[in-house]
Design brief:
Blueprint (H helix, E strand, L loop, with lengths): L15 E5 L10 H9 L2 E4 L5 H4 L8 E3 L11 H13 L4 E5 L9 H11 L3 E4 L4 H8 L14 E4 L12 H7 L3 E4 L5 H10 L7 E6 L7 E6 L3 H7 L6 E5 L6 H4 L1 H5 L17 E3 L1
Parallel strand pairs: 1-4, 1-5, 2-3, 2-4, 6-7
Antiparallel strand pairs: 7-10, 8-9, 8-10, 9-11
Helix pairs in contact: 3-4, 6-7
Length: about 280
């Protein structure tokens, strides 16, 4: 029978593994991520990697924080990539641990290409991105045959830190359901652009903060009221924003709420919602 460490048997000295840690809950780590935590000589981790995940590594394994958070002093991306190269050239098994999935708005591609340029061996270990796992924890499915046959995942800002680089008109018309990452700062401008492009102001919106963690909360609102409600409830990142009829399904699929006594709706798509509410 295979042991857990078999999943990291080829984690070679002098290499870097870019590993997705999932949306936050330690139970959502992959077996390979868990094995890499055991085998690494050093862990370089992001801001969204929680202490309970880091605690799965041996206590003596060094940890280096390389978190990048918008609006706060953060390491430069180039410096992080160069540090990975430096550590690998010291012959270490370097675990680059990133929240969610390293290739979904995680800049893992940039780091991997830098490793390629430096001739450093690497491996990509996918993780559960917050736009999937976080919404599932909140009782919001990405797809449902009665609501949508497509989903669009979008970053809430472009490389300049603004929303000008996204074709919001095409986004508004191209997919019945949208999932926004890193969008809290610009949610007002995004909502205006989507409404101007034809999305109804009454369209359901859910803002999931601290997805999958015990302190997770969900703000349900509408596209027209999202910016006001986010400010009124003092919603802070990290957050995932879901837009579309998939949000209505939460009234029937909030499994965490049901565990606490919430009565679920058997036919949530028949319900309309004009008000906003925040639940834990």
């Amino acid at each position: 029978m295979s042991t857990m460490t078999d999943f990291a048997a080829d984690f070679a000295p002098g290499s870097v593994w870019l590993v997705g840690a999932g949306p936050g809950h330690a139970g959502l780590l992959t077996l390979q991520a868990h094995a890499a935590l055991q085998a690494a000589d050093i862990i370089v981790y992001d801001a969204l990697v929680g202490d309970d995940i880091l605690a799965l590594a041996p206590e003596e394994t060094p940890r280096e924080y390389a978190g990048k958070r918008g609006g706060k002093p953060s390491p430069k991306q180039a410096d992080i990539s160069l540090r990975l190269i430096q550590l690998a050239r010291q012959g270490k098994r370097v675990l680059r641990l990133k929240g969610g999935d390293p290739f979904v708005f995680g800049r893992g591609g940039e780091e991997a290409l830098t490793l390629v340029q430096a001739g450093v061996p690497f491996r990509i270990c996918p993780g559960i991105t917050a736009g999937i796992g976080g919404l599932a924890f909140a009782g919001i499915p990405l797809t449902h045959r009665d609501t949508n046959h497509a989903i669009t995942m979008i970053t809430g800002h472009d490389a300049t830190g603004n929303v000008t680089g996204v074709d919001w008109d095409a986004v508004a018309k191209g997919s019945p359901a949208l999932v926004l990452y890193m969008a809290i700062k610009h949610i007002g401008a995004i909502s205006e652009k989507l409404i101007a492009a034809g999305r109804p102001a009454s369209e359901p919106v859910a803002v999931v903060t601290n997805a999958s963690l015990p302190e997770m909360s969900v703000l349900e609102t509408s596209l027209g009221n999202a910016a006001t409600d986010i400010e009124r409830h003092n919603v802070k990142p990290p957050a995932i924003v879901a837009i579309g009829e998939i949000v209505r399904l939460r009234s029937g699929l909030d499994w965490l709420g049901a565990a606490s006594g919430k009565v679920l709706e058997p036919d949530p798509l028949s319900l309309g919602r004009d008000d906003s509410e925040q639940t834990g």
